[in-house]
Amino acid sequence: MKLLFADDYRLSVLKGDMVVDCSAVVADIPHSGPGDLMSGLIARFDTYRPKLEAHVAASKGVPLASVRVRPPLPKPGNIVCMAVNYMEDGTLPAPAPINAFHKAPGAIIGPGDTMVLPDVPATIFEGEAEMALVIGKRASNVSQHDAMGYIFGYINFIDGSARGLKPAGNSFFQMKSRETFAPIGPFLVTADEIADPQKLGITLWVNGEIKQKFNTDDMAHKIPRCIEWASSIHTLEPGDILATGTNHRGLNSFMDGDKVELEVEGLGRLHFNVRDDLKRTWLRETRLDRKNQGHDTPTPQISGKYA
């Protein structure tokens, strides 16, 4: 099942290329807004799924193109992002130590929204293409053996970054948790629709040009281990997001006017815009381009404030 929020955050289900409004079906779930409505549905999904399926089967819906699609998880309790979690197309000699960081839930935006680059002296702004999983039930000290049973579903996820901010030892929060730096969507796809989440193609386009293209089978620490490790540190709740990392070789500069698209196989295509009121520019080089030129740093800024 593909869940989404449409227009004024009406909980809906995608039926082919039609959107079925299911807000009446879930109206009795206690909630104060769309964020806890979705997490409440996730926690009660076994009860509500038959009701949703019956309603969708009996409804025609409206064309997907006729609605404004919102982020499917507009207010997750936690966004946990795995760090350096790919073998970079098998080029790394060994996995990096397992690690992660928190991203502020207020960074969430949805399809068609705009990532706004702030007026800060970042060396470069990037967006990392990722597949993220969504927790389906309370998870504390989960074993790898049981971990897949805690997944409700999957979403497209972008980890926006303002890199190079000073001081160097105090950068992660200000680099990762900027408002608009976590585009997600368009749908939350339930786990039963994804046969093998460890074998999904991930593609990111910037202005129609492919910049990142890799597969989740290149993960250094596989999904069960990520859940085991994260849940050993703090409890994960229904609706929490765990982003599984990226292959850094295709990372490239995000700039004013960019049209970005991300598609993880089976999860639909997320599209969003980039705005920079300072109109800063960088070369269109990827990390791999730079490496092939003998550089171990991202492409430098070439114009605008802070260049």
- What gross morphology would you assign? globular
CATH architecture of the largest domain: Alpha-Beta Complex
Query: SSE string, helix = H, strand = E?
Result: EEEHHEEEEEEEHEHEEEEHEEEEHE
Helix content: 10-25%
How many domain units? Answer: 2
Under CATH at level 1, the class of the largest domain stands as: Alpha Beta
* Total of helices: 6
Q: How is the CATH topology of the largest domain named?
A: Fumarylacetoacetate hydrolase, domain 2
Radius of gyration: 19 Å
Number of strands: 20
Name of the CATH homologous superfamily of the largest domain: Fumarylacetoacetase-like, C-terminal domain
Q: What is the makeup of the main sheet?
A: 11 strands, mixed
Overall structural class, as computed from helix and strand content, comes to alpha+beta
Question: Please, could you describe this protein's structure?
Answer:
With 307 residues, the chain is of the alpha+beta class. It folds into two domains: 2-70, no CATH class; 79-303, Fumarylacetoacetate hydrolase, domain 2 (Alpha-Beta Complex). It is 16% helix and 31% strand. The chain has six helices and 20 strands. Strands 1, 2, 3, 4, 5, 6, 7, 10, 11, 13 and 16 form an eleven-stranded mixed sheet that branches. It has a five-stranded mixed sheet with strand order 9-18-17-14-15, with no helix packed on it. A two-stranded parallel ribbon has the order 8-12. The longest helix has 13 residues, at 45-57. The protein is globular. The relative contact order is 0.18.
